[in-house]
């Protein structure tokens, strides 16, 4: 029997996050949309306590034996109803229902932390994560995108050259989420992708940790964005930026026939993070859909269920379609997370969830604005903001088109050379 009921542990955590979103995020959503690049410090300080606790638990696991670590995983899984990654997606949905931009302001290791978890040594994890267990709020970030290397990460031109006991980085990275907070405003760090051997192609691309205050790393621009405006998105320039030799993640060896521990190792982080982006999209879409149904109810317009489509009004058909798209995206997202909880490879499912959620939420928010007319277009309500916020979920951490390509390649068994 298939059971879609959530375990009581997940329901309790979901309700707690929903209260946080409703009481501490939704009320300030408009304020920090209009005050772009200012930070909601009350929210940040509130979440910093949870961040420190989570990172401390990760570090404690490094000191455990294999048996202790397995037992700790069982205990943690039990606390999450046996599905910690599913729980994470549900919490991300609730958080983005509160406000997607403010949700991204949360201090923590971020996407850069996912890369460190994927390929760093235990010593590197202790060193880079250790600072996130004390002091004031801190951020980690990942710098991948370049002006001429967006979805095609193999085209990265930022370089790292070994010079004695250091690496010297040069290049420019754009669209770095929390880049200013990580590189300039807190005691954080940025994980930078750069090539150490251009002739080796993707195999020559490695990731490096550049710590805050490192000479040669400069935040040169903050983007003025369509949506998620509470979150800073930075351009960072690296000019003869010298970092310690052991700040490279993984092996410095270039093996042209095996990129498992290099480029592919870091790319694997997206299998874990793309379902989170999908969950964020679902949260925004749910907010828009709930608004529509609430306003329809206020006007006495009922949305009926259990009747033939031929008996439905045009508005009812639209709402049913929006609900179906949202639920399909949610189930795909939960499936990708469920596979992670079972330690199964989920590259196909993560991209399916990300692609579907990005398309679904864009359609839902656009349709919601259309159905509400002046109410949807007015800045008196948040609906127009959700329409602006939602599109990023179809762009960052792999555009919808790229994820469609990944899905097609996985299903058809084609490589990059056969399907571009």
Automatic annotation (TrEMBL):
Keywords associated with the record: FAD, Flavoprotein, Oxidoreductase
UniProt keyword Ribonucleoprotein present: no
Presence of keyword Transferase: no
Acyl-CoA dehydrogenase/oxidase C-terminal domain mapped to chain residues: 261-412
Top-level taxon: Bacteria
Cofactor needs: FAD
Record InterPro entries: Acyl-CoA_DH_CS, Acyl-CoA_Oxase/DH_mid-dom, Acyl-CoA_Oxase/DH_mid-dom_sf, AcylCo_DH-like_C, AcylCo_DH/oxidase_C, AcylCoA_DH/ox_N_sf, AcylCoA_DH/oxidase_NM_dom_sf
Gene Ontology MF, one: flavin adenine dinucleotide binding
Acyl-CoA oxidase/dehydrogenase middle domain location: 141-241
PANTHER family: ACYL-COA DEHYDROGENASE, ISOVALERYL-COA DEHYDROGENASE, MITOCHONDRIAL-RELATED
UniProt record similarity statement: Belongs to the acyl-CoA dehydrogenase family.
Protein name, UniProt field: Acyl-CoA dehydrogenase
Organism of origin: Candidatus Abyssobacteria bacterium SURF_17
């Amino acid at each position: 029997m298939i059971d879609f009921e959530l375990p009581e542990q997940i329901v309790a955590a979901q309700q707690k996050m929903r209260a946080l979103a409703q009481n501490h995020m939704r009320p300030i959503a408009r304020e920090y949309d209009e005050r772009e690049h200012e930070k909601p410090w009350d929210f940040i300080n509130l979440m910093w306590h949870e961040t420190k606790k989570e990172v401390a638990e990760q570090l404690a696991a490094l000191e455990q034996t294999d048996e202790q670590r397995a037992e700790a995983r069982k205990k943690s899984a039990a606390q999450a109803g046996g599905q910690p990654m599913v729980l994470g997606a549900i919490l991300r949905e609730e958080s983005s229902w509160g406000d997607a931009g403010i949700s991204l302001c949360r201090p923590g290791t971020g996407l850069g932390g996912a890369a460190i978890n994927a390929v760093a040594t235990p010593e590197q994890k202790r060193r880079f994560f250790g600072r996130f267990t004390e002091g004031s709020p801190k951020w980690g970030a990942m710098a991948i995108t370049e002006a001429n290397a967006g979805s095609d990460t193999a085209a990265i031109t930022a370089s790292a050259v070994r010079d004695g006991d250091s690496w010297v980085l040069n290049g420019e990275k754009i669209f770095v989420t929390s880049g200013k907070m990580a590189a300039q405003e807190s005691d954080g760090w940025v994980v930078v992708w750069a090539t150490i051997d251009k002739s080796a192609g993707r195999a020559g691309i490695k990731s490096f940790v550049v710590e805050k205050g490192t000479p040669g790393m400069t935040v040169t621009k903050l983007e003025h964005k369509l949506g998620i405006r509470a979150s800073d998105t930075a351009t960072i320039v690296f000019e003869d930026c010298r970092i310690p030799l052991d700040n490279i993640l993984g092996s410095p060896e270039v093996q042209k026939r095996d990129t498992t521990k290099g480029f592919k190792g870091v790319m694997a982080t997206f299998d874990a993070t793309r379902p989170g982006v999908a969950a964020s999209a679902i949260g925004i879409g749910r907010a828009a859909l709930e608004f529509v149904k609430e306003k329809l109810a206020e006007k006495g317009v009922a949305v009926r269920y259990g009747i033939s489509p031929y008996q439905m009004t045009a508005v009812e058909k639209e709402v049913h379609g929006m609900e179906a798209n949202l639920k399909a995206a949610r189930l795909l997202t939960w499936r990708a997370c469920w596979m992670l909880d079972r330690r199964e490879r989920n590259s196909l499912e993560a991209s399916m969830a990300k692609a579907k959620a990005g398309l679904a939420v864009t359609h839902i928010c656009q349709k919601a604005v259309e159905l509400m007319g002046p109410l949807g277009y007015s800045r008196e309500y948040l609906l127009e903001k959700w329409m602006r916020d939602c599109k990023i979920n179809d762009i960052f951490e792999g555009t919808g088109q790229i994820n469609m390509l990944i899905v097609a390649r996985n299903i058809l068994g084609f490589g990059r050379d056969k399907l571009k």
